[in-house]
């Protein structure tokens, strides 16, 4: 028993609910015997990983679920030892090279080569060679390497991947998983079959939620009985979770744990860091002064201390400012203000990526926004 | 010995050295030319130089500094031939024959190469010059002490008594009462160490006070007490009543007295202190023998040793950490074995000399508790954090020292000193000592800047913002610029300081702040480039941002002296960031989420909501077994543990220090609550914990298939525990609800209880007074209400918890009557 998101995760291709065309395509790929390098991309929580795992299961059978976690050590050229987690089954390996930051190239070079150079021999196939299995000679000859967060790999690592993909194509197949392909270099794109997994629609959410609630009787009791109300609640959840299904299911669970009765007016659970940022945004609009700034500073420190990436803070804040300036409506030139805010956000976003001191630039952004607002109002 | 004498000794050694080399050459010669070896003392400088040229021809094989020993020296050559060297009087013949020898060789050389070896000649010349020089030096130096040495000596000896000792050593606290700050933590350390009494000192342990688990945390309700007892039962009772975690790990920033505390407390309890620090060789095997020796045996003083491992986070040597881990592991094994044996024989046989048992306390000290090296050790450690003592305490300590040393120092200056060292007491004392001779101590801060670079960043910062009357702005600009660019190492600090200060300036405004942004960014970029690409040529631009600050903000009275620069908040930010990233790493490893970003973004907050649902409109949680079951399952799935939350050291003195259960890893960390502690959550957590322990107990009872002895042992304990807990559980939940409701006003709660149990209480009161007296005799440093806790606890019929806090420290002792509490 675990979180619902894990508990009700589709295990095989039959359980995959939405995007039937993609499922069908993957299925036919798995049964065709050969298998290309894949580049699976789409927003998080759309079911990329589930689809890949289901395909793998189709390809190799249930033994891909026998996962184990290994810790491999690598030595950098500067003689530092690095530890790296590898999740593997007899047939596939899952790695997240971006864990290693700038050293991901070494992981790609060492680990992939190591895997690629060993030809996997399937004994069951050998034994029953002349039996019925002989018509799929190519099957299971290769291992699959799943690379998570492929877009955050460095250029070097991606370049290291290029040649490996061709040279050892007899032994390994790569599945790159990423949110967007914009950071993937073209040579890799051209070597892979790209599959886009879009975020599920609201009706997809409904199907998934209904499936879960039909199995969780206690929770079913709490959610509204009437079909129409239920759909409204689902819609709320889907919107609050930005159509991220995993997040949506977790929210479904959190709502169940937190309330006695869920109605159409039940407030969605928003992560507290978002609430805090929204709070900053509204307070900036209301009160533009140095004392407010120093209060904001402590909150920003707090946020950063909670490992919330500075860019995420900036993004959320900008969006909130955008929204809230609209709703207040006391600005003389609303469009100009909004434009200026977005300009400032762009400027400080650049500074955040170039510099090191996140707090300086976040506060700089807040100051700049205050100045912009002040200028318009006075 | 005077200086000159020493020098002479050295010099003569160097003469010796040359001679021995020559001798070696001759040894070689003797082997080739079959001449009898002769030893010779070279005394005449001319002869010496002559032989030095041999050195160029023959590499010395080895050196023997003992040429002048009067005994016969014996060498064995590579061919097995024995050669005897005798301290023989130099005969003219021998010298002559040797000279011949030299000539021969010279001739041979000349034959081989008809050209004159210029480089050889040149070196020869050089050597000669050097020798002459040295001789002159020697003469000079040997003369000097004749005049001065005698005179100086007595004076320096006199000074030695006082001045020799560093003040930091001199004023190192030597007993418990001398320690500055952190009273609670100190007491906790003391308590921890007293738990070793039975094992190490052959003294009985002091009675286990309720608060063993904390000088830092104390149960403040009946319910929590119950839980704590449960917990204590749960962990295996130690046959020697040693503390649960065998190693005490103290961490904190430098210079706040970690080492001092460890030493002072160990000394207080009469331990012999064996210290191992970073300066010692800490590679595996070497230190192993040392420690084992200390830990197993007693030394001549008859005191048992207490091992203090200083600077443990610097112990990069892998072996050392592993060895400590082995020590703990073996101890665990031995203890388990002992408990088991005791159970089976049903006789209390305590064999202290059992193999592998840890018999002496170990205290480890470190700065960074999150260091990788400590990863393995941490689960076995009782971790205690020392914080910087509050400013006024440092100040008063410094004042005391100044008084003792007859130093006239203004308080303002001391304040500056404390701030500039970031509350590093040791640094402050050091500064005082080494500037005490100069008279500038009572001077203004600006005069200091030129003297001491250690604190100058702070004064530089001051100069950035405060306008001087004497100079024009341009002049000041130039001087500041010069000073900033000449102190590249402190610019970073100045920059951060500027950032910390600009919001509090008198003349600050949004527009001014906005104007600085570009330069702050510029500075950040320069720094990034500098650290990433080692562009040292860019350091010059470093001081641009402070100069910009100067330009915009510098004004008379801009910076307010009374305002304190908050160095603390930043430290704490990093501390908590480290904690959180550690937690994230752990959870990620437990394959909770896939992506770190997603984990931070929504999974953790949502998980937190799922595990501890505290939404206000959720009243039925306690009654919904399904929901509780779901939480228990999640706890199992993700291997969460429970631990006591150590109460925050808050400035808010009135707040009652709450002891609560938290998850381990602490999910709570990820939620940002700017405000007060959520009371509901605490109650809920306690409930979850109780429920979970019951749940686990039931599970264990139902499956009794496993047969390992240890497991049975544990199960038996659980059974007892659940049996004990069962009848109580109803009562407890009721109590829990009440305490949650009454948390706002504990007094009300007790008043209602009082009415119901009035008779019992009066009964208890008498008892109380009696026991209170006896405790007073014991003189334990616990306040009285604590003793009353225990007494009421003894009264099994009705347990009422009273907690009384005066101030934030329990050190305050006050006579309290029951009337005062109701």
UniProtKB/TrEMBL annotation, chain A:
InterPro entries linked to this entry: AAA+_ATPase (IPR003593), DNA_pol3_clamp-load_cplx_C (IPR008921), DNA_Rep/Repair_Clamp_Loader (IPR050238), P-loop_NTPase (IPR027417)
Keyword set includes ATP-binding: no
GO biological process: DNA repair; DNA strand elongation involved in DNA replication
Protein keywords: DNA replication
Alphabetical list of CDD domains matching this protein: AAA (cd00009)
Sequence ranges assigned to domain AAA+ ATPase in this UniProt record: 34-213
Tree of life domain: Eukaryota
Cited Pfam families: DNA_pol3_delta2 (PF13177), RFC_C (PF22534)
Single annotated GO MF: DNA clamp loader activity
Keyword Nucleotide-binding appears in the UniProt entry: no
GO cellular component: Ctf18 RFC-like complex; DNA replication factor C complex; Elg1 RFC-like complex; Rad17 RFC-like complex
Name of this protein: Unnamed protein product
Organism in which the protein naturally occurs: Ambrosiozyma monospora
Organism placement in taxonomy: Eukaryota, Fungi, Dikarya, Ascomycota, Saccharomycotina
Automatic annotation (TrEMBL), chain B:
Protein name: Unnamed protein product
InterPro entries (alphabetical): AAA+_ATPase, ATPase_AAA_core, P-loop_NTPase, RFC_lid
Key words of the record: ATP-binding, DNA replication, Nucleotide-binding
CDD domains attached to this UniProt entry: AAA, HLD_clamp_RFC
Basic and acidic residues: compositionally biased ranges: 719-737, 763-774
Domain of life: Eukaryota
One of the GO biological process terms: DNA replication
Residue span of region Disordered: 20-57, 200-246, 692-742, 761-792
Pfam families named among the record's database cross-references: AAA
GO MF: ATP binding; ATP hydrolysis activity; DNA binding
């Amino acid at each position: 028993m675990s979180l619902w998101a894990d508990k009700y995760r589709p295990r095989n291709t039959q359980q995959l609910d939405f995007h039937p065309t993609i499922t069908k395509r993957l299925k036919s790929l798995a049964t065709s015997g050969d298998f290309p390098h894949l580049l699976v991309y789409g927003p998080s929580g759309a079911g990329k990983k589930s689809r890949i795992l289901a395909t793998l299961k189709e390809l190799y059978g249930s033994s891909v679920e026998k996962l184990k976690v290994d810790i491999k050590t690598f030595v950098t050229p500067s003689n530092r030892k690095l530890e790296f987690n590898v999740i593997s089954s007899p047939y596939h390996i899952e790695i997240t090279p971006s864990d290693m930051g700038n050293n991901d190239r070494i992981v790609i070079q060492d680990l992939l080569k190591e895997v690629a150079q060993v030809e996997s021999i399937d004994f069951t196939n050998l034994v029953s060679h002349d039996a019925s299995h002989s018509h799929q000679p190519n099957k299971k000859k290769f291992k699959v390497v799943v690379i998570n967060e492929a877009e955050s790999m460095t250029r070097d690592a991606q370049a290291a991947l290029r040649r490996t993909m061709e040279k050892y194509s007899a032994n390994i197949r790569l599945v790159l998983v990423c949110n967007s392909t914009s950071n993937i270099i073209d040579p890799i794109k051209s070597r892979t079959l790209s599959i886009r997994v879009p975020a599920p629609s609201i009706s997809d959410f409904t199907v998934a939620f209904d499936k879960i609630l039909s199995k969780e009787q206690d929770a079913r009791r709490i959610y509204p009985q009437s079909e129409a109300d239920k759909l409204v609640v689902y819609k709320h959840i889907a919107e609050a979770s930005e159509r991220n299904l995993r997040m949506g299911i977790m929210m479904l669970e959190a709502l169940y744990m937190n309330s006695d009765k869920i109605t159409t007016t039940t407030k969605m659970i928003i992560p507290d860091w978002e609430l805090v940022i929204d709070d900053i945004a509204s307070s900036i609009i209301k009160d533009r002064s140095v004392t407010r700034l120093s209060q904001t500073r402590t909150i920003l420190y707090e946020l950063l201390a909670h490992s919330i990436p500075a860019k995420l803070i900036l993004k959320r804040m900008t969006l909130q400012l955008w929204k809230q300036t609209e709703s207040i409506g006391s600005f003389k030139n609303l469009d100009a203000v909004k434009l200026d805010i977005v300009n400032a956000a762009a400027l400080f976003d650049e500074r955040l990526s170039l510099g090191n001191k996140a707090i300086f630039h976040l506060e700089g952004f807040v100051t700049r926004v205050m100045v912009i607002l002040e200028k318009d109002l006075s | 010995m005077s200086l000159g004498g020493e020098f002479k000794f050295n010099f003569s050694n160097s003469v010796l050295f040359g001679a021995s080399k020559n001798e070696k050459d001759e040894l070689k010669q003797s082997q080739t030319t079959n001449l009898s070896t002769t030893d010779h003392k070279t005394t005449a400088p001319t002869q010496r130089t002559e032989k030095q040229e041999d050195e160029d021809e023959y590499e010395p094989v080895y050196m023997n500094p003992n040429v002048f020993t009067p005994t016969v020296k014996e060498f064995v050559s590579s061919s097995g031939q024995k050669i005897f060297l005798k301290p023989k009087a130099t005969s003219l013949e021998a010298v002559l024959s040797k000279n011949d020898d030299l000539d021969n060789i010279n001739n041979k050389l000349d034959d081989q190469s008809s050209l004159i070896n210029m480089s050889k000649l040149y070196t020869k010349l050089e050597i000669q010059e050097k020798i002459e020089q040295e001789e002159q030096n020697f003469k000079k130096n040997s003369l000097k002490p004749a005049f001065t040495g005698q005179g100086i000596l007595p004076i320096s000896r006199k000074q030695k008594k006082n001045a020799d000792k560093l003040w930091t050593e001199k004023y190192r606290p030597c007993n418990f009462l001398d320690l500055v700050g952190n009273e609670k933590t100190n007491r906790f350390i003391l308590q921890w160490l007293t738990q070793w009494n039975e094992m190490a000192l052959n003294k009985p342990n002091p009675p286990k006070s309720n608060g063993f688990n904390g000088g830092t945390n104390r149960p403040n309700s009946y319910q929590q007490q119950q839980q704590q007892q449960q917990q204590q039962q749960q962990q295996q009772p130690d046959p020697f009543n040693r503390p649960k975690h065998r190693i005490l790990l103290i961490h904190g920033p430098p210079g706040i007295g970690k080492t001092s505390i460890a030493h002072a407390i160990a000394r207080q309890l009469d331990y012999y202190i064996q210290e191992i620090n970073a300066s010692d060789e800490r590679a595996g095997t070497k230190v192993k023998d040392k420690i084992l020796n200390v830990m197993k045996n007693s030394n001549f003083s008859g005191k048992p040793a207490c091992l203090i491992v200083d600077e443990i986070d610097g112990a990069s040597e892998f072996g050392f950490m592993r060895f400590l881990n082995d020590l703990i592991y073996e101890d665990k094994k031995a203890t388990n074995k002992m408990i088991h044996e005791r159970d089976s024989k049903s006789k209390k046989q305590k064999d202290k000399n059992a193999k592998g048992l840890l018999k002496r306390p170990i205290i480890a000290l470190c700065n960074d508790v999150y260091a990788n090296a400590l990863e393995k050790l941490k689960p076995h450690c009782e971790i205690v954090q020392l914080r910087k003592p509050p400013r006024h305490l440092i100040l008063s300590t410094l004042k005391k020292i100044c008084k003792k040393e007859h130093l006239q120092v203004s308080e303002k200056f001391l304040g500056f000193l404390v701030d500039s060292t970031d509350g590093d007491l040791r640094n402050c004392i050091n500064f005082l000592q080494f500037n005490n001779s100069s008279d500038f101590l009572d001077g203004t801060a600006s005069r200091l800047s030129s003297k001491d670079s250690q604190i100058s960043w702070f004064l530089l910062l001051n100069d950035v913002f405060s306008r001087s009357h004497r100079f024009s702005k341009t002049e000041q600009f130039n001087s500041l610029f010069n000073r900033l660019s000449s102190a590249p190492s402190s610019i970073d600090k100045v920059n951060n300081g500027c950032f910390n200060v600009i919001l509090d300036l008198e003349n600050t405004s949004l527009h001014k702040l906005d104007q600085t942004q570009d330069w702050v960014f510029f500075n950040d970029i320069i720094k990034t480039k500098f650290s990433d690409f080692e562009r040292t040529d860019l350091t010059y631009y470093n001081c641009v941002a402070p100069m910009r600050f100067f330009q915009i903000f510098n004004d008379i009275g801009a910076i307010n002296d009374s305002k304190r620069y908050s160095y603390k908040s930043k430290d704490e930010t990093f501390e908590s960031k480290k904690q959180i990233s550690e937690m994230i790493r752990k959870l990620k490893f437990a394959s909770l989420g896939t992506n770190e970003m997603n984990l931070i973004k929504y999974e953790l907050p949502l998980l937190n909501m799922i595990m501890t649902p505290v939404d206000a409109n959720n009243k039925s949680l306690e009654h919904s077994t399904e929901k509780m079951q779901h939480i228990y399952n999640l706890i199992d799935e993700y291997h969460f543990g429970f631990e006591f939350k150590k109460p925050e050291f808050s400035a808010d003195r009135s707040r009652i220090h709450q002891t609560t259960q938290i998850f381990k890893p602490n999910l709570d960390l990820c939620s940002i609550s700017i405000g007060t502690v959520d009371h509901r959550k605490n109650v809920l957590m306690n409930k979850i914990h109780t429920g979970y322990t019951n749940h686990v107990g039931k599970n264990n009872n139902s499956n009794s298939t496993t047969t390992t002895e240890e497991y049975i042992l544990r199960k038996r304990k659980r059974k007892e525990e659940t049996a004990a807990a069962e009848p109580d559980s109803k009562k407890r939940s009721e109590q829990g609800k009440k305490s949650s409701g009454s948390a706002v006003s504990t007094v009300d709660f007790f008043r209602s209880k009082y009415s119901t149990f009035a008779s019992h209480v009066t009964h208890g009161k008498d008892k109380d007074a009696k026991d209170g007296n006896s405790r007073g005799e014991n003189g334990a440093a616990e306040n009285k209400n604590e003793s009353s806790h225990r007494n009421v606890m003894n009264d099994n019929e009705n347990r009422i918890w009273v907690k009384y806090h005066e101030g934030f420290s329990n050190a305050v002792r006050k006579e309290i009557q029951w009337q005062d509490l109701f």
